[in-house]
Specification:
alpha/beta, Urease, subunit C, domain 1, TIM Barrel, 7-stranded mixed β-sheet, 12 helices
């Protein structure tokens, strides 16, 4: 049994817990939350800084970990995607090694759960042995080619089945890469389940232009891979309306990136499906597009934080993502962004029964953020702030 306290404890779902001692058993379950006055100082462990629940990385591509350092920054999405496609195939043992290293580094960074995108089966063995909880989103696409939807679906269904009893869902990659027929087959596979869905959303302006009037870079992008766009008909609306038309609204949905998403899009999404979550991956957005979402547009949205992959990031660290958000959007209170990184992520992955908040009988993991400045009504992460996993 351990008794833990700090200058400030962030609960995840109830704000700050002042003068509180967290009592945990040897396995990390929370046995009690007590007033510090009930103990003498030699009875508890004191951590200068902040204690908080383990982080939830709501969006990652663990299988791309071998691509670290391979790509230039600021190239924009379409050239970046082309580079990923052209550089994915390397020595399988090297791929598995880098997956294992990335998983271990995320655990050291205080990440207890991950919403992970998989196009292949490379991450299965790592996930079977990892202390991290993974929900795998087996991501399907057919390059908007209705005639090839069945072939692509069958291939991704084999990947989906290979993950066995691990938590998983088959999901569409993005509106610009999934035909109506493939959407339908994915929905049929998930019907009758409580599947959590995920989709890359409005990551660049070209995506909306494709659906508004068939302009932007996606037509020539797909044609450069040999796929005809002759049969594609735009809908005279932004891409997210195509998503809402074809994705099952009965399942929770994680909308990923949202760099171009505006308040009216969010209102439409929440009217369509109140169980929608918006995942921001700020370092990846800066790496690829040199742009962040306008977070003022998301005041009524349930925000979560992801890292994307090591092909589009310098590290898989939620603390680093938090620092980036607060650096570029300093009006956001630390408490709100920490909630995105903990409780909201746990809600999105449907694991808030054990993760995301410091509550009795949960086992959320306990993180310690060091190098924090405290003021009368606020606290500030210093640039050198670092994370240490306590339990």
């Amino acid at each position: 049994m351990r008794k833990l306290t700090a200058d400030n404890i962030f609960s995840g779902n109830r704000g700050w817990l002042k003068d509180t001692v967290i009592v945990i058993d040897d396995s990390g379950h929370i046995l009690a939350l007590k007033d510090r006055k009930e103990f003498s100082p030699n009875e508890y462990e004191y951590f200068p800084g902040i204690l908080l629940p383990g982080f939830v990385n709501a969006h990652c591509h663990l299988e791309l970990s071998h691509l670290y350092g391979r790509f230039q920054t600021g190239t924009q999405l379409l050239p970046f995607l082309k580079s990923v496609v052209q550089n994915r195939e390397v020595d399988p043992d090297f791929v598995l090694q880098k997956i294992q290293e990335a998983d271990q580094n995320m655990w050291k960074e205080g990440i207890v759960a991950v919403g992970d995108i998989s196009n292949k089966t490379d991450t299965i063995q790592c996930k079977l042995s990892s202390p991290i909880y993974y929900h795998t989103f087996v991501e399907a696409f057919d390059f908007l080619q209705e005639s090839q939807a069945v072939v692509f679906f069958q291939a991704y269904k084999l990947v989906y089945e290979a993950f066995g009893n691990l938590p998983k869902t088959m999901v569409p990659h993005a509106p610009y890469s999934v035909s109506r027929l493939l959407f339908s087959m994915i929905n049929n596979l998930n019907s009758g389940t409580s599947a959590i869905s995920s989709i890359h959303n409005q990551e660049c302006i070209d995506e909306d232009l494709l659906f508004i009037n068939k302009t932007g870079g996606f037509v020539s992008f797909w044609e450069s891979f040999g796929f005809s766009m002759e049969a594609f008909n735009p809908i005279a609306k932004d891409s997210v309306y195509y998503t809402m038309e074809h994705l099952n609204a009965n399942h929770p949905v994680l909308f990923i990136h949202n760099t171009q998403t505006k308040k009216d899009h969010i209102e439409s999404i929440l009217n369509w499906n109140p169980k929608s979550y918006f995942v921001t991956c700020p370092n990846a957005n800066l790496f690829i597009e040199n742009q962040l979402p306008d977070y003022t547009q998301f005041e009524n949205a349930c925000m979560c934080i992801g890292t994307d992959s090591l092909s589009s990031n310098w590290q898989l660290s939620i603390l680093s993502e938090i620092k980036t958000i607060l650096k570029h959007q300093s009006y956001l209170p630390l408490e709100e962004v920490l909630r995105w990184a903990t409780f909201h992520g746990a809600q999105a992955l449907n694991i808030s029964d054990w993760a995301g908040s410091i509550d009795l009988y949960k086992k959320p993991g306990i993180n310690w953020i060091q190098d924090v400045e405290f003021f009368e009504n606020a606290c500030l992460l210093k640039p050198e702030a670092k994370i240490q996993k306590i339990s």
